[in-house]
Amino acid sequence: MEVEAAKLIGAGIAAIPLAGAGVGLGLIFGNFLAGAFRNPSAAAANQQTMLLAFALTEFTGLLGFVIAMIILYAF
Amino acid sequence: MLVSILTAGAEAAESAGLPQLDASTWPSQLFWLAVTFGLLYWVMSSMILPRIGAAIEERRDRIADDLDKAAESRRLAEEAETAFNRALADARAKAQAVTGEAREEVNAEIDAMRKDAEAAISAKTAVAEQHIASLKASAEAKVREAAQETTRAVVEALIHETPTPAVVDAAIAKAVKA
Amino acid sequence: MIHAATPGLQAAGPMEQFEILPIVPLTLGNIDVSFTNSALWMTIGVVAIALFFFFATNRRALIPGRMQSVAEILHEFVANLVRDTIGHDGMKFFPYVFTLFIFILTANFFGLIPSIPGSPHNLHTFTTTSHIIVTFALAMLTITIVIIYGFAKNGLKFLKLFAPSGLPIWLMPILVPIEIISFLSRPVSLGVRLFANMLAGHIILKLFAGFVIALLGAGGFASILAIAPFLGSIAIFLLEFLVAALQAYVFAILTCIYLSDAAHAADH
User: Residue C12: pLDDT above 70?
Assistant: First the structure.
């Protein structure tokens, strides 16, 4: 039973990176919006970069999520 | 190494494990992924994408053609407009020339007619003046004659004597002078 | 695990939807290549794509109809992506990137179709991209193409990718291993990103749906509360549509960027 409890705690800890990913995504979208409001004509050209940054940032959180899943289900 | 760790983990928890880490399903998935993806790639690259590309290309060509045609038509229209304007200007100049000529002609005619008329009028005036002059002369002579006869008649009635014309004349002259 | 009390409403575990179940058992040599539910949905996806594009481009009208417009918009979207990222000589990869994009997009979308209630488990809708082996195989395919093309185009100068010019010599021992690790992590991150997105979205969907069933099963006042996870699952479902399209786009654009790196490795 202790192993079970440790797994659950470990999965919870492994979900912490999601907070960082959330902050990062907020920064990306927030800064993109700020820039887009300042210069709306340049916004469309930078959308691709924004989505790319979104994908790269999201990966950190997803890695945490996957590790949580592996702890929960694979061990 | 990662794979072996994950596989070991998957094998350790067979019932509750992540289905994704069950390595026994991998060959089947890879096989069918290769088959379906390969087939899709073949269909796409050999049939469908060239077709879409050709349709888009055709449309682009057609639009370019139409644009060229439109530009050509526009050029023709502009040429026609300049030609028209030139013709209009020519016509206007010609019309002005014609008008000027006509005006001169008419003026000349009017002048000639006026001269004729003036000549005729002056001739008639001269005739009339002569006539008036002759009338005046004859009228004076008649008045004088009438005055002589009246004078003679008056003198005969008064003194029963017939005056000589010379005397009568002198007397009339004297009276007229007075 | 959530067990429903109401008979007929059976909430499955969140992982059950990812189980690979055979439909037609097959072996090739001594390798098990059974036609599974995963293979079924790959086939359905590919057939649907092929049929759609076949009928969309059948008439090839000068003024496109609705289907032809969709096909042409997708074509132009991916073509612009490839052209903007790799350049004009990158258009030889256009069929590959387009196939990749449309394959992942369809797999992601078809996975969101709700299953028919009561249908056999091995015919439930299945998200083929929620399996790491599939996404990792696609990522490895991309990286293999990148490496082969990189060496074919630049020869050994392709290795300059790991040692950018204008770098001080003393930084080399630090930066080159970092560059190599970053290059090696590309297929992992590419594959895991798509896999984890699909996994996370479907688990959350299933969890919310499980809450609804559990609350309904509890009866009384709790049944009324079931509306909250129900609305939540609708919201997550809509979000998953965005994620499905976005992840296909991200996979395609990262493929393009890696190919562009390979194409221009000798330039920097």
Answer: no
